[in-house]
Amino acid sequence: MRTNLGQSRWALTIISALTFILVPALWPVHGQATTSVFGVIGDYGSNGPSELAVANLVKSWSPEFIVTVGDNNYPDGEAATIDANIGQYYHDYIFPYLGAYGAGATTNKFYPALGNHDWDSATGAQPYLDYFALPGNERYYDFVLGSVHFFILDSDLDEPDGRTSGSVQAAWLQSQMTASTTAWQLVMLHHSPYSSGVDDGSNPDLQWSYSAWGADGVVSGHNHNYERIDVAGVPYFVNGTSGDFTDGFGTPVPGSQVRYSAEHGAMRVEASASQITFQFINVDGVVIDTLDLFASGVETPTPTATVTRTPTITQTPTHTSTATTTLMPTVTSTPTPTRTATPSPTDTASPLPSSTSTLTLITTSTLTPSPSQSSTATRTPTSTPTLTPTPTPRVLYLPLLLRAGPPG
């Protein structure tokens, strides 16, 4: 027994030494921030099987919080329907929660934007304002979580502070966003500044100078489909398929890269100080689109995505030719080489220290164009940034002498 106890103590001594040597080598380097995951839903508040399917999908990601891009409470934003449309599915993210569907969160993890249907009640947006406890004037506001600064706008015509580029609301956004020092700045609003949607499409009133003010991405809804559009090197997402009916597309707007409306879904976003990854995932769990943004000076890996189902989407590649090329690919289970685009943003405003430096965009997709389609356009990158690899942590190994018993 004495020998076994001695051997155990000797083994513990060795393990302690290894822990002291190896664990520090595995710590994050250069103060690298923790990664956070959040969900983005839009046009969802319809209290039906599609909303339930999307809510289950989003919760399967275990997101730290959820952001919406409006139309939270169909059809008319009434107090009588708001809890069934929102709290029934997302009460465990809302604080304070006073509804009838169980316990709420201990801190607020649900950040909505106003949509046009949320303004349609007899008292305007009052049921929405009564239901949530949000920062600022609650109609438009900002907050920081992790490495992301969020700017939630009210894009409705009824907004007292206006919705055009010369409005009080736009001046507030410019002031707040240009002063931000976080790694990433994201704008969330309901009506789409740019969209190829067949019914509503683009809204010129909302085509503000987001990029010049420091935005790294703009996410909207209103059009009941998913689309990713490149505008001067900044991604604009339309994310309006999280519960209500889905709708199709008209003529693609310039810069439209991915269009999808076959199934309901939501966006999963993962962010750290060095990288942010946007994905659109449908209710079958199929990743329809992935876009990675990397901060300047961070080496960019090139992973290949794998898809197991075959929904049809439309993708229009960005190129510098004057030809118009429209590809109609079909998602397949065979990985294809990743496409890497390195556009240079055209903003002339003073850059922010942590977010408006040159970004390297990597679009990962498993889209295989139909053999019958062809394109003569060639893509020419506008610049080739110099990449600085992130140092790889080193693990030190020391020779150890294992003995059958304790020393001596």
CATH architecture of the domain at 36-297: 4-Layer Sandwich
Count all strands and give the number: 18
Strands ordered across the widest β-sheet: 3-2-1-11-12-13-17-16
Q: Strand count, sense and closure of the main sheet?
A: 8 strands, mixed
Give the CATH superfamily of the domain at 36-297: Metallo-dependent phosphatases
Using only CA atoms, what is the Rg?
Answer: 24 Å
| Terminal CA distance | 17 Å
- CATH secondary-structure class of the domain at 36-297: Alpha Beta
**SSE string:** HEHEHEHEEHEHEEEEEEEEEEEE
Structural class: alpha/beta
What does this structure look like?
By secondary structure, the chain is of the alpha/beta class. It has a domain of 262 residues: Purple Acid Phosphatase, chain A, domain 2. 17% of the residues lie in helices and 21% in strands. The protein is built from six helices and 18 strands. The strands form three sheets. An eight-stranded mixed β-sheet has the order 3-2-1-11-12-13-17-16. Strands 4-5-6-7-9-8-10-14 form an eight-stranded mixed β-sheet, covered by helices on one side. The N terminus and C terminus are likely disordered.
